[in-house]
Design goal:
This protein is mainly α and about 70 residues long. It is built from 3 helices and no strands. It has one domain. α2 crosses α3.
Length: about 70
């Protein structure tokens, strides 16, 4: 009954289960107020980069400790 059509826990493109990092990097790079998300694979395609590049940024943001999304 709660089905809204947008599940914030899965990628809205491919339906993959999302990790906290997937959502965090999406909010960081696409929209801070996002309510639906892409997995890193689909986000990489959207942004025209590689998944490895996104993982690199996740690591960077977490290690820098400056971003509240990565704690
Ligand atoms: Zn996906």
């Amino acid at each position: 009954m709660q089905e809204t059509g947008v599940n914030p826990d899965v990628c809205y493109q491919c339906g993959a289960k999302l990790m906290a990092d997937d959502k965090a990097i999406y909010m960081k790079l696409v929209s801070r107020g996002a309510t639906s998300f892409l997995c890193m694979d689909c986000l990489a395609v959207k942004l025209g980069c590689t998944r490895a590049a996104l993982e690199e940024r996740v690591r960077y943001f977490r290690e820098s400790g400056n971003c509240v999304l990565f704690r």
